[in-house]
Amino acid sequence: MNDTTSPSERIRQLRLQKELSQENMADMLGLSTTAYGDMERGRTELSFSRLENIAKLLDVSLPALLGFETKTLSETEWLRQENERLLAANARLQNELDQWKNRFGSLVAVEIGRQIQQHREPIGF
Fold first, then answer.
1. Which of 63, 72, 108, 116 has its CB surrounded by the most CB atoms within 10 Å?
2. Could you read off the pLDDT of 76-89 as tens digits, one per residue?
3. Taking a C-beta distance cutoff of 8 angstroms, is the pair 44, 38 a contact?
4. CA gap 51, 10 in Å, rounded
5. Residue 33 · residue 22 · CB < 8 Å
6. Which residues contact 109 (CB under 8 A, 6 or more apart)?
7. What count of other Cβ atoms lies within 10 Å of the Cβ of residue 40?
């Protein structure tokens, strides 16, 4: 398989090499055949845990399933690099979230306070 192949295409190729049907894979993953087919067509985001399960079912390493050449990159090194990439992405997302909170947080708090005041029942003695 070449390095330009998408993970979903790699999954399909490996499944065919193992002579498994989409129905077999769907059953083993606890999915409907349609949901599994959507994964192979790239219509569904593949979670890390789903990719791990698929790699185990197809008897390949996760880096190989994702298209990394295991000859040039050890699984430990790949996991380290992937962890660094995910930490950087997480930091970017946290920064973006903080910016949104700074920009709209006070507006949200004011609106929530206004709605509470509108729905508060008067207390009478």
1. 63
2. 777 788 888 889 98
3. yes
4. 11
5. yes
6. none
7. 19
